[in-house]
Structures are given as C-alpha cells and as structure tokens.
Amino acid sequence: MGEKKFKIQHWHIVAVMLMVYDTIVVNFAYAVALWLRFDCRFSAIDIKYLEAWIAYIPVSYTHLRAHETDSYLVCRLLLEKKKTKKNKKKIKKRQSNIEKTERKNDNNNI
After folding, report:
1. How does DSSP classify residue 45?
2. How many other C-beta atoms are found inside a 10 Å radius of the C-beta of residue 66?
3. Which of 2, 84, 97, 106 is least surrounded by Cβ atoms within 10 Å, i.e. has the fewest?
4. d(CA 82, CA 102)
C-alpha cells in the first residue's frame, strides 16, 4: 500500500529558523547582561551564573510558541486574521469620520 510521505511545510522551516535565531539572540542578550552586570569583565562573572546559564538555557516566548500543535496554531492564526479584519474596519470608519469632519469644517469656513 502507499505510504504517506511527510511533506515539509514552509511553517516547519520558519519554526526551526525561529528556534535557532531565538536561541542565539536570547543567549547573546544574557551574555551581554552578565558582562554589563559585572563591570564589562567576563573574568568577574561568578561561576554560579555561568552554571545556571548552561543548566537552564534561556529561550524566548517565540521559541515556546514554535512548539505549539498544528491545530492550536491554526486557531491562533484564524483569530489573528479576524482581529486584523476588525482593526481594518475600525481604521476605515475613523478615516471616514475624519473626512466628514473635515468636509463639515470646510463648509463652515466658506
């Protein structure tokens, strides 16, 4: 029988790239914070801070979101799309109200 092949979706690649990027950036930020905290001298950093850094490798919120299930991710994207549509409607309404007010002011000035 035909076996189902796993097809890599573009979001799989994006998720992996985000994990790598976030790991690098968050760890770099932690290293800079330690460096600044200890008067810009790596030799002054207490070993317990370095051990904690290695033991608990910091990750960002985006990294954690990359581990969401497919169905949860789809729900989140649909909600964000719906939110975007609502925001666009609000913006159009505000713009039309501004235009009405400007026309009214122009008519009053004449």
Report:
1. S
2. 19
3. 2
4. 30
Q: What is the rounded distance in angstroms from the CA atom of residue 85 to the CA atom of residue 107?
A: 33
Helices (H), the chain: 10-37, 47-55, 61-65, 70-109
Residues 6+ apart with CB under 8 A from 18: 62, 63, 66
CB within 8 Å of 57: residues ≥ 6 apart: 23, 27
Written as one letter, the residue type at 107 is N
Of 10, 11, 15, 7, the closest CA to residue 67 belongs to 15
Query: Six-digit token pair at 59?
Result: 């990750």
58 within 8 A of 23, measured Cβ to Cβ: no
pLDDT digits (tens, 9 = 90+) for 54-103: 777 666 666 566 666 655 666 666 667 666 666 677 777 777 888 888 78
